[in-house]
Amino acid sequence: MKLLLDENVDVRFKFCFDAGIYEVLTVRDMEWNGVKNGKLLKLAADYGFDAFICVDKNLPYQQNLSVLALPVIVIDIHKNVLPSLKMIYPSLIVLL
User: pTM score, two decimals?
Assistant: First the structure.
């Protein structure tokens, strides 16, 4: 499963995923830093990503997620830091 982490997600979070199951890239890996959400989501779909993971709670209000070609997972955490991301990892895997 090919996943894209938004640029606001700690890049170290990608190393939490089982590399035998998930191919996890970041917006930075793809050199898409600064690309606006609408275009970014289209690029992610065009490049064959299976899901986009972000922490931007406003994204569902800014984009019509129901018409996108890939699922968008918005992680709702109190602090956007690696320890908090690791805490939600098991739930994220179940969701995926």
Answer: 0.91
